[in-house]
Write a structure and sequence with these properties.
The chain has one domain: Divalent-metal-dependent TIM barrel enzymes (TIM Barrel, Alpha-Beta Barrel). It is built from 8 helices and 10 strands. The strands form 2 sheets. It has an 8-stranded parallel barrel with strand order 1-2-3-4-5-6-7-10, surrounded by 5 helices. The chain is of the alpha/beta class. It starts with a strand and ends with a helix.
Amino acid sequence: MIKLGLCSVTFRKKSMKELVELCSSIGLEGIEVGGDIHLPPGSPPAEVEKVKELCRSAGLETPSYGSYFNVMEHEKQDFAPVLETALQLGAGTIRIWPGWVEPDQLTDEQLAGISSTARAAAEAAAEKNVRVAFEYHLNSPTSGAKSTLRVLEAANHDNLYTYYQYLKPDGIERNVDDLKAVFPRLAYVHCHYYEGDNYMSLAQGRQEWTVICNTLRELNYQGFIFMEFVKGNTPEQLAEDVTLLRELLGQ
């Protein structure tokens, strides 16, 4: 069954308590806890336990730790506090970043560097039964299936996965083909819709997300779809988008 959750970075100004209450009020099932504001790597154990207990008490899962560990900029040893915080939180997957270089500008040296660091992170996490997955994002080495698979193949580790999100300006056909291509290595899905630099209501992307949801069901996807950013940054818009997403998923 596909479950719905929220990326905490959607509302960076809200506390975790407020986010838990919001998720509960609209029937979400989990939270991807962000590693920038809500729970930075190396947070005191008592703080991590507080966040974990808030979620647990509300019946919310914490399956994903949205870290900002960047394999192009950070050193291998910098992953240790990221992994420790994810373990304390009970997150089974850690999101990492591949850097900020367009795929066609990525040099062999850069690819070797990010592959080595990602491989080390994946190996360390595997020892603790935690997955590591790349952010799937424009203007990065993992913007689209072809470039993402190139990075995954270069890193060559069974514990490396990828997230997925709808990418513009690629059309829906290209996005669906990419989803199918990365599906064997898919960790979770991020959901939003945008035009240019502006996030829009999911209703404005209804056509695209109808196809994506149908494809996920055809592929028998069983993971989370995390809502990530909404028009106007309002809880009301989040609730509206979640209602539509449930409709598209036939829930």
